[in-house]
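Narrative progress, year one. The postdoctoral researcher (J.K.) led the effort to move from monomer predictions toward full complexes, under supervision of the PI. The following entry was the first complex the group processed end to end, covering 937 residues in total.
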Amino acid sequence: MSTIETHTTRVTVTVNGREVSEEVEPRTLLVHFLREQARLTGTHVGCDTSNCGACTVLIDDEAAKSCTVLAVQANGHKVTTVEGVGNGSGGFSPVQEGFRQEHGLQCGYCTPGMIMACTALLAEDPQPDEHQIREALEGNLCRCTGYETIVRAVQWAATNGGAGEWA
Amino acid sequence: MSLIGAKVLRKEDPNLITGQGQYVDDLQPAGCAFMAMVRSTEPHARIVAIDTSAAKAIDGVLAVWTHADIAALPARPSSLPGMDMPLITGDVARFVGDIVAVVVAADRYTAADAAEAIIVDYESLPAVASLSQALAPDAPMIHPVLQGNTVFFQDYTEDLSAEFAAAPRTASLSLVNNRCAPAPIEPNVVLADWGPAGLTVWAAFQAPHHLRNTIAAFFGISQDTTRVIAPDVGGGFGAKINFASEIFLAAALSRALGRPVKYTQTRSECMVAMFHGRAQEHKVDVAFDDSGKILALKVQVTQDQGAYPDATGMGLPVLTTAMSAGCYKIPKVAVSWRNVVTNTTPVAAYRGAGRPEASYMIERVIDLIADETGVDPIEVRKTNFIPADGFPYQTHSPLAVYDSGNFAGALDELLRHADYPALKAEQAARLADPRAKLLGIGFASWLEIAGFGPPGSLEAFGHLASWESAQVRVQPDGSAIIYTGASPHGQGTVTTFAQIAADQLGIDFDRISVRHGDTAVIPQGIGTMGSRAVAVGGEGVKTASTRVFERAKKIAAHLLEATEDDIVVENEEFHVRGTPSKSVPWSQVAWKSFQPLELPAGMEPGSLDATVFQQVPNFSFPSGAYCCVVEIDRETGDVDIRNMYLVDDCGTVINPMLVEGQVHGGVAQGIAQALYEHMQYDESGVPRTATLMDYLVPAAPDLPGYVSGRTVTLNPSNTLGAKGVGESGSVGAPPAVINAVVDALSHLGVKHIDMPATPQKIWSILRGSK
């Protein structure tokens, strides 16, 4: 009987401005690296086909689904998660605050991915119209809100500081 | 100032928007092992052999279990005798997704490797993939105890042949209420830790006490050492009330291995393993006159139960039956129903659970009558409505005594938002222009039974009782903690219950916390389902808060040397009415409530603490009127919802922002059922939509914006006047959407189109008409 090959490789990623360096199996997904090695559990897993977007993070400031990226592919890159967009001491980013003000979340499970997708959208286009917001969020599923309040959350953020800043 | 009706931002949000929420999969205790499943890939098959040797040889694999390893344990709770669902199936697999073997390994990836390494030798058996296959003569059988595939049959409650024979007009309709996957974005997740001091289970679940009691009974252990914690739960929609086999397996394996065991469903597993919803077929006959007045209604409901009937799933047609007459005064109603097994995923509660099916049926019937008589659908509704002064209204069903409502009022309010004459004119103009998209206008006047419920109602579904618990505990500094048994999963209960308590206690909203979801801390509770949290649990918070406040007033009166009746509270200060200078702050009253020397004679220390098991005398009946306007592309058959007007009557609104959120979410799921979602099986019983690639959970571009209005009739069964709103949208939206689609195509002679109204179906109709 053969056993599974389990050699590991070192992966070093700058997560939210902090260097995280771990020995991982080459097949380790970035989302599991973030959740289980970096112990940042804000980034969620909602599917296995990259449809739901609950795992959305920023890699070098661009939105990416961290369940479709291997941790080794992020080696040497900068990753920003939902934990990295507020000011860290209870202050919220404009997008986070928009979600709160406009009731853009209920159960909260899709929310971190939504916030990162919305953050990336506003970084690229600070004043999107409703149609552009909906199209930009096509890859992020929410089962609770029906999306209208998420659209409003993005609009709130657009008029109250935009994408915000992060490390 | 009252907080009832105020748009208050949610206490839940700061954690959830910063990634600090705590869902079960976020927990990783020391030594945590991971469970993975081998699931049947066959719809119906004899299991000839299972080769686990390769899996067992993998480094890090801690356990590989098959049926023999759980043979001493009971079947999945909520199974039906003789049709039990074993935690791990034995000789026969009965649906794609049935658990065949379980592995536990030191990490997530190794567990998946080991599950892959298990080889199952199946011998295929003939399967029944649909109701028609299951009910065919000589159909293959799933459970020999049945002598067929029908689990239960209820004949028509009344013979209406005389009414139908005498009626000026009759019509018939066959409807399929498509099978849906609840698909919360967080699937089923469980972490079990069975240590020397007892068993703790963290589960994504809607009713933690219900689960705690069931787990204790299942393993024959004491409830006091069995603890269930439902931390943040990533959506439930009814599906997380079901006793998933994985929960019991995780506990059993934790006991066997002496370490915590965690299991997280993959989405592909969730699509076939988490119980589905709807899956009903209706045959409807209606008798009416030329004015559209309904004289009699006959409905035959066939409920697909999937491979293993579930106690909750068995009850779905009961709720459909109770609500079959909708908002209408129908002299004679007779319903027959049957529950049928098929080689598919079991079916149980999904948002609305039996009531969207009823609403869809009766609202389609109304439009059919309009089509047959030429009377406008609005008029047909108004002709048949139960009048606003007609409550309480005893329906054909002993279960449903409508307590309140104003159906005509809601429809009038709807027509204030939706300009019906203008829409009709636009529709006619577009019809005349072959290049224009078709326009369809659909209405639904809907009503549901919610606020579960009066004594006996939830007991019938296996729950301990139908009340909900609330405990209010004032802390020595004058802040308060509320404990509720109605454990939420996104509803905003922490916020609404704090609003209710703040009003009664006179304590600032910011100094009130709401705790839930831990059986070691919370008084025995029931849970969140059936739009009951506010109508029952919230009322409990009000009752307990009132009791505490009355006692606080006694202490304040004692401290101020005044009579209790003269004491009022303002800005967290008790004072004597008319004498604001004579006052004592809430914080002092609270502090002294713990000090025997400070208390009035006869009062015990710690009395600012009350626990209530809130009962309600009746269900509640949220209602409303929706209008959907669709545009249909004549070339592609694509449906686009241009407008969605929503008028809801949920009684008293505690927080309008949260009510709007609940309505939007329910409507989104209703639109999804009407246009997009359909859990499909091929003829052999293999699921065709088992991933989010194939099963269309709508995204932001697929759904419209909403225009909301409101009417209010109060719920007489609680002092809040609140009815509940969680399921409303899912009840009202599907008929509004399909009525609109049919309306857009009615010039082609279309009388009905089954959900989901996909572009393919509509394109075929449009093509056939050319």
